[in-house]
Amino acid sequence: MLGQIIFGLQEYNKDLQEWGGSAVGYGAYLKSGHFLEATFENLESEFLQMALLVWLTIFLRQKGSSESKKCDEPNEVDREPSPLREGAPWPVRKGGFYLKLYQNSLTFTLFILFILSFLLHVYGSLKDANTENLLLGKPLEKWSDYIVDSRLWFESFQNWQSEFLSIFAIIILSIYLRQKGSSQSKPVDASYSETGE
Questions:
Q1: How would you write 138-155 as a 3-class SS string?
Q2: SS3 per-residue string spanning 36-82
Q3: Integer Cα distance of 6 and 23 in angstroms
Q4: Distance (Å, rounded) from C-alpha 46 to C-alpha 23?
Q5: How many CB atoms lie within 10 A of CB 157?
Q6: pTM score
């Protein structure tokens, strides 16, 4: 984050000067659309990636991948929760709605973080675009117009595709490649067809 702030400020000040504005300091930069857009654009793609990975691994299997549940035997994570289990969290003991919510709380939370990051990305990107428009004497863009603007979606999709490519790579590469000591790898002597860790 520190590197992003240091070099982001330098980049932002270059942009401001090109647009006829004055350079700003760290305090102003941390409130700028440039900083907000860059930060939340990245967080948005991370949260989307993790939310979909968690959710899709409920249903999808990849034989031989360390990221997949076992294909041919029961998985511990599919066990029905028991309120009698020692140390069971309170939503499990309470049951009903609380249990239903708790059973899906990781996916819900990651999707909520994705949505919040996306909204902050849109806000920051619009603010940055309007800073540029203001300094160049162009009309300011409205939220309703900007949400369908190619700039916003280009920023999002370029990050989303890199996240999905990295997930695809680890799912497939973990079938054939190993890293001793890593929880993301199968044991070094495991067969290619062995699924799960």
A1: CCCCCHHHHCCCHHHHHH
A2: HHHHHHHHHHHHHHHHHHHHHHHHCCCCCCCCCCCCCCCCHHHCCCC
A3: 14
A4: 31
A5: 12
A6: 0.85
3-state secondary structure of 178: coil
Give the model confidence (pLDDT) of 126-177 as tens digits. 999 999 999 999 999 999 999 999 989 999 999 899 899 998 898 899 889 9
Please give the distance of CA 35 from its chain centroid, rounded to a whole number.
17
Residue 85 carries which side chain, given as an amino acid letter? R
- Token pair for residue 165? 């490519």
- Residue pair 40/10 in contact (Cβ under 8 Å)? The answer is no
Radius of gyration (Cα) for the chain, nearest Å? 22
User: If we measure between CA atoms, which residue out of 132, 111, 133, 2 comes closest to residue 47?
Assistant: 111
Backbone angles phi, psi at 86, to 5 degrees: -60, 130
Cα–Cα dist 21/32, whole Å = 14
Instruction: For residue 72, give both structure tokens.
Output: 């041919």
Distance CA 97, CA 71 (A): 30
CA 101 to chain centre: 21
Q: Would you state the structure tokens that stand for residue 24, as one six-digit string? A: 């700003």
4-16 residue pLDDT tens: 999 999 999 999 9
Residue written as token pair 């076992």: 70
